[in-house]
Specification:
The structure is a single chain. By secondary structure, this protein is mainly alpha-helical.
């Protein structure tokens, strides 16, 4: 515990105590700033990872059943053609959305589907 000297006979000791308290507060603020600079990027990375995993799970749970159903039905019928056209339209829309958000970004190429 920091002792506070009453101003009186020894005023210099009182000033050195105040100075020590100010230095301790300054050091604590510097340490807190350094900790925050390390903490915020870690939080951002965790949020990004969670969003990526959620998007992957959503995309997989939607895509897998659709592909499974499309593989079960015969290829030469209007439903199969509609599923194929809808899939292509969805990919085109996703690519256009990604390009409009960041003109420099390229939409990832999918190995199974080529435009």
């Amino acid at each position: 515990m920091i002792g506070m000297n009453a101003p009186g006979a020894n005023g210099v000791a009182s000033l050195s105590t105040v100075w020590a308290v100010m230095e301790a507060a300054r050091a604590g603020a510097t340490d807190a700033t350094a900790a925050a600079r390390g903490f915020l990027p870690a939080v951002g990375a965790s949020v990004s990872t969670c969003l990526h995993a959620g998007g992957f799970a959503l995309g997989y749970t939607v895509t897998f059943p659709a592909v499974f159903v499309s593989r079960l039905m015969p290829k030469n019928n209007p439903i199969a053609f509609g599923l194929a056209d809808g899939g292509r339209a969805g990919l085109d829309f996703a690519r256009a959305t990604l390009r409009s958000a960041d003109p420099e970004a390229q939409a990832p190429r999918l190995a199974a589907v080529s435009p």
